[in-house]
Design brief:
Blueprint lengths: L1 H29 L2 H8 L1 H4 L10 H11 L4 E6 L7 E6 L7 E4 L6 E5 L8 H14 L6 H24 L6 H5 L11 H15 L1 H15 L1 H10 L8 H4 L12 H8 L5 E7 L2 E6 L13 E6 L5 E5 L6 H7 L1 H6 L4 H48 L1
Antiparallel strand pairs: 1-2, 1-5, 2-3, 3-4, 5-6, 6-7, 7-8
Length: about 375
């Protein structure tokens, strides 16, 4: 079995190494996505500090008036000094994200999120999109990286088994796997980094792998697999509220009114047949801790369709709802984000050292085979 596991680890590692190196490096950057994006684009994200601000419905109407042909689908309720991020849809639009002054509704700027380019507005969204989809067309990139995440999750267990010693005494022998030998050769140093680094960070790497599956393949793999062990409450997608052809009767302001008292509303949004509010007070945009809670209403009757409260409910629901927080480290706030940043660099390092180890062993096998052929030829003469 050890030989089978070693071969499996080798080929899964070689298959996924390049993808994981890219994901690790880009992931270590987008842990600080909000901060970096704002630093690069202060003209988009900053707005004059004022106590006055228009209501979400008024802001949406003013944005649509300034940008004919657009339809606002979601907008943020920002903190003081920040612009409102407004997401729009429409035919043949060259942009989908608009930034508006929350006090007046005046458009400050706009961009196409994820568009390729190294300009300040495009850089961070492009890196973010590249991280989980390689910016491949349609859903193919998301599916591909989801499959890579599945292989990575399995390989985490395979790699762990391979560190276990053969024979007794177990603990004294296993201690070697956790250490980096001083004064060793370059190859031994790379081998120790690969093995010991993977062991020390095993729990974090496994969380990153499984949360990647949850984020890229939620309905294809993660939720069906979780449902085989425990019941899960339905999501908004599971409920399939009927989309009505007629214009919605309820506005963004109505959604806030229906939601009542809540802990810091962050977003109001509209989907076919529904309007809703996302709220939370922990961290930037409420994304720290267990993340945002969401409440959704029928946009004709105002009936509540769904209320997902972050960190509350069944244990399985809490676990399913916290996958982004686990993946980004936001579950622990700034310490968690720093840990995930370092783990992303470690993933890239483990991928590179794994390839180096394979190349070294491959070259050694080739040399041995050539020597054997030369010896056999000499003996035959």
């Amino acid at each position: 079995m050890r030989a089978v596991f070693a071969r499996l680890h080798c080929w899964v590692g070689l298959t996924t190494a390049g993808f994981l190196a890219i994901a690790g490096l880009t992931g270590s950057l987008i842990v600080f996505y909000q901060e970096l994006d704002r630093a690069l684009n202060p003209d988009l994200f900053n707005a004059p500090v004022t106590a006055q601000r228009v209501s979400p419905s008024t802001l949406a109407a003013r944005v649509e008036a300034q940008l004919p042909g657009t339809h606002v689908t979601m907008l943020s309720i920002p903190a003081a000094g920040r612009a409102s991020e407004v997401w729009v849809s429409g035919k043949a639009l060259a942009y989908d994200q608009v930034f508006a002054d929350p006090a007046t509704g005046n458009v400050l700027g706009k961009r196409k999120w994820g568009e390729a380019g190294l300009s300040r507005p495009n850089l961070m969204p492009m890196i973010y999109l590249f991280h989980y989809s390689l910016k491949l067309p349609g859903v193919w990139g998301v599916l591909l990286m989801g499959v890579i995440a599945c292989l990575w999750s399995i390989d985490c267990f395979v790699a762990f088994v391979l560190t276990l010693p053969r024979g007794a005494p177990f603990w004294s022998k296993w201690q070697t796997s956790w250490r980096i030998k001083r004064g060793a050769s370059a190859y031994r140093l790379q081998f120790d980094l690969h093995r010991a680094g993977g062991l020390w960070l095993w729990a974090v790497l496994f969380i990153l792998a499984t949360s990647s599956v949850a984020l890229n393949l939620p309905e294809q793999v993660f939720r069906p697999l979780l449902k085989t062990f425990t019941p899960l409450s339905p999501t908004y997608g599971d409920l399939h509220p009927p989309a009505v052809a007629r214009a919605p009767r309820l506005s963004f302001d109505d959604a806030l009114r229906l939601a009542g008292e809540m802990d810091r509303p962050q977003w109001v949004f509209r989907e076919p047949g529904a309007v809703g509010v996302s709220y939370g007070a922990r961290g930037d945009k409420g994304l720290d801790g267990f993340g945002l809670s969401t409440i959704v209403f029928d946009d004709q009757t105002g009936a509540r369709l769904l209320h997902q409260q972050a960190g509350r409910g069944r244990l399985a629901d809490i676990y399913a709802g916290m996958q982004y927080q686990l993946h980004s480290g936001r579950i622990l706030g700034w310490p968690g984000r720093i840990l995930i940043c370092l783990a992303g660099l470690a993933v890239a390092t483990l991928s590179v050292t794994g390839i180096v180890i394979w190349l070294r062993k491959r070259n050694a096998r080739i040399v041995t085979r050539r020597r054997h052929v030369a010896t056999s030829y000499a003996a035959s003469r």
